[in-house]
Amino acid sequence: MSRRNFHVVGKDVRKVDGRELVTGAPAFADDFPQPNMLYGKILGSPHPHARIRSIDTSGAEALEGVHSVLTYENVPRARGPVGRRADLFNRVPYTRAGQDYPEPSPWDFFLLDNKMRFVGDRVAAVAAETVEIAKKACALIEVDYEILTPVLSPEDAFAEGAPIVHDEPDVQKAEDPKRNLCASVDVYLRDVEAGFREADTVVEGSYSVPRQQHAQMELHIAISYFDEDDRLTVICATQVPFHVRRQLSQSLGLPVSRIRVIKPRVGGGFGGKQEMVIEDICAALTVATHRPVRLELDRYEDLTAARCRHPMKLTCKTGVKKDGSLTAIEMIALVDAGAYGSHSPTVPTNTGNKNLPRYRCRNMHYRFDAAYTNLTVSGAMRGYGTPQGSFALECHMDETAEAIGMDPVDFRLSCTVVEGDTDELSPYIYEVKSEAPGDETKPEDVAWPITSCGLHDCIQKGAEEIDWARKRKEFDKYNVSNPVVRKGIGMCCLSQGSGVAGIDTANATVRLNEDGSAILFIGAADIGTGGDTVIGQMVAETLGITLDEVTVYSSDTDVVPFDSGAYASSTTYVSGNAALKAAIEVRDDLLTIAAGLMGEEAGNLRLEDRQIISSRSSKKIPLRDAAMHSIYKNKDQIEHTASHVSPVSPPPFAAQYAEIEVDTETGEVRVVEFVTAVDAGTIINPQLARGQVDGAVSMGLGYALTEELMHDENGVPMNRGLVDYKIFKAVGMPKMKTIFVETYEATGPFGVKAIAEIPTNGAPPAIGNALKHALGVRMRDLPFTPERVLRAIGKMK
Amino acid sequence: MILHLKLNGKPREFDVAPGERLSDVLRREQCFSVKVGCSTGDCGTCTVLVGGEPIVSCLMLACQAEGAEVLTVEGLGEPGRLDTLQESFLDEGAVQCGFCTPGMILSAHALLETNPSPTEDEAREALSGNLCRCTGYENPVRAILEAGRRMAGEES
Ligand code: FES
Ligand code: FES
């Protein structure tokens, strides 16, 4: 399919779920309370590392209104197909990371355990008549802990004689738990040492990134109950309903056939809900009580005991020639996985392979080591490992440019990829991971061609928009005469992926009604991004109808076909492709019927504006006639289901620019203007796409300047809630500008690539580079708080 | 105890417990537009208008609202017809996940009542109590300004 004039695709249409959201109609999990519902509460561990010697729940159980108190001693495992009977002992290792089976994440978690691995880890779970009673019951549980020395950093974790976070014998798939090694990768493309020898200059730098947290507005929430047929139903705020269903089956012992997971509207996910944070324990309370149970984390729990972005320490080393060409790049990351290994083999893999391949360089080395610690569990978060690497590499590339006296923009233009180049690293990492010894794959054998790339356009258009060349010089002069408030401008370039190649799977069903309208069933989980709308647009476009005529059902495991879920920027690219394929099959059936009705050949017919039009004779009939014919004459409703899995993950590209002012007396950094130029292929809905960029940028700004989840020296979280975990507000946002550099990605539906994650990645390095411009010092640790700025310029110790 | 409210224009009576928060009572009474993102007064998703003023209903005890006029998003527009702000929020793409949307619309409503043609800064200021993790506030701010223009157009 090539570019042409579209009617629905490429247009700002209203979101299909917009009306229910602006009227406040019941839409989110918490808006569907069940009759006789109990309220759940989790008792979290006060210690980062401890073993329960004994636990006494009698006081809690005696409290009026308490229906169940679960601990590792009595957590039920459903027996028999309906879960009416249960064994009072359940110890099955599993992961809560919402990934395709078999999950790459280690199976290192148990519904309830006697070992506590971070502050907030599950000690017990209570179901009671009210939340207040459940809380009181938690307070009445008496626990005798054997306190263990906590592991509070990756360095601690790998030190000789360190306490072992996962010493249980039944942990599975962790790389080397006895050494606290959760996962690692060490991969070379050719010979970096030779590359460094070839270079005119070798540049090295170290960087660190903190724990960022999703802080989505809707807390983690689940409501579980047995329906009238005794099937377990869970209504939950999730990005991965099908993975939740499978993992519930694994953890609770119920067959998949007895479980239904419903994702209603979700109040933001950003990766935090690519994880079964509470559904398992909520459902266990339902199994134990046979009552509906509602479980919601409070904001403190959501912030400190759910998931966060992996903190990392990174070093980069680059060999560069005077002309700006690169001879070798090396990136090494030390990663804090936290107490459980959710997403820890995959997130840090992306840190390298979603960043390094945008540079043209034959010799590369990427390594990471992810350590188990007794801190908040790291997991999936928008960008999925990429932002950490983008901060390090893009600061580092500015340093490299400086080392050879080149302007950062010119330097990027000299050494980043163009269409026709290849990405060797991403496929090679997976190849090497799965390779048998002696089986020697060469990087060039598995390389992915870069089939669409607007990166250089992004760099240039962004530079024009922010007036790079002029401001870069002007601010230099300005800063000499204005020592207090300095100005700076910085940039970076970025890449990401579109879905997980060879893994993310999507299915879609398109059913045609007799009036020519359609019902679309997709497994894809719209978590507020507009996925339902964008995919609906593709179907409407294909069938020549309006979006109003497409009814979208998504994410009820009883109703829609399988989908891996909403992550890795996969919805538009992967799930969109499945829907497009199904819609094309429906269209072809319609055209065959119309051909008979019109006495034409199907190949000459097209669908447009609810008509079937012959391009040969310009005869037309209403689409409705063919649809009516299929149902009432042929007695055969047109319906098709199609699957899609992509063998590649074409990278979207972007350049981001930040103009800042920094007050050298207070250390305050103000972002004046922020420009994003992004190549995400074809843009299906510009307004929604711009919204994705705006939101991603605000999250990146927080990562750069204000957001950090911290633990004290005893491993106890220091942030209490949104009062001291600071995300950006409406006041304080910079002037924002987004430019779409449209390319056409042939493997994507209508030429699309992904958009949702890439704009998250650039604020930290762009601002870091602007700070260097303004202050003359390189700041290497996020976030750039006033205190850190003052320390960097020597005004504070 | 019995709480008397004028809720969305209609006199209502609710049986409430002494410590109950207004947000909990409103949700229990089917005002699902009132969201609870923190319970500590920090996120603004529970914003409602009490006597025309935006307040965070998670910090207000239900009994403190005795006799007050309370407006939630359920009270905007008419059946089958959206209010101007609701329309402009849809048109400007100001809704992503929509969890913050009711609170934002009410803050904006209070602003436009007293200041029908606000500047961009004033619109941002009006949203200062409403956190949003999805939109970066760009489209909501646009939507407020657009609603102001439309209301002015309707009046002239
Ligand atoms: S729930 Fe009231 S301010 Fe967050
Ligand atoms: S739209 Fe999701 S929090 Fe604002």
Describe it for me?
The complex is a heterodimer of chains A (797) and B (156). With 797 residues, chain A is an alpha+beta fold. Chain A has a domain at 18-26 and 502-645: Aldehyde Oxidoreductase, domain 4 (2-Layer Sandwich). Helices cover 28% and strands 23% of the residues of chain A. Chain A contains 21 helices and 30 strands. In chain A, the strands form eight sheets. Chain A has a seven-stranded mixed sheet, with helices on both faces. In chain A, strand 29, helix 19 (686-705) and strand 30 form a beta-alpha-beta unit. Chain A is globular and about 80 Å long. The relative contact order of chain B is 0.16. Chain B is built from five helices and five strands, in the order E-E-H-E-E-E-H-H-H-H. With 156 residues, chain B is α+β, with helices and mostly antiparallel strands. The radius of gyration of chain B is 15 Å and the shape is globular. At the A-B interface, helix 1 and helix 19 of A face helix 2, helix 3, helix 4 and helix 5 of B. The complex binds FE2/S2 (inorganic) cluster (2 copies). One FE2/S2 (inorganic) cluster sits between chains B (96-100, 132-135) and A (217, 268, 528).
Defining key terms:
heterodimer, A: 797 residues, alpha+beta, Aldehyde Oxidoreductase, domain 4, five-stranded mixed β-sheet, B: 156 residues, Ubiquitin-like (UB roll), DNA polymerase, domain 1, 2 domains, 5 helices, 35% helix, binds FE2/S2 (inorganic) cluster
CATH superfamily of the domain at 18-26 and 502-645 in chain A: Aldehyde oxidase/xanthine dehydrogenase, molybdopterin binding domain
The CATH class of the largest domain in chain B? Alpha Beta
- Kindly report the CATH topology of the domain at 18-26 and 502-645 in chain A: Aldehyde Oxidoreductase, domain 4
Largest interface: A-B, 55 and 53 residues
* SSE pattern of chain B, N- to C-terminal: EEHEEEHHHH
Question: Which strands sit side by side, in order, in the main sheet of chain A?
Answer: 3-7-1-14-11-12-13
Average predicted local confidence, pLDDT of chain B: 96
Assign the structural class of chain B, choosing from mainly alpha, mainly beta, alpha/beta, alpha+beta, or little secondary structure: alpha+beta
Any idea how many domains of chain B?
2
Q: Taking Cα atoms only, what radius of gyration of chain B do you get, to the nearest Å?
A: 15 Å
Read across the widest sheet of chain B, the strand sequence of neighbours is 2-1-5-3-4
Distance between the termini of chain A: 61 Å
Low-confidence stretches of chain B: none
Number of separate strands of chain B: 5
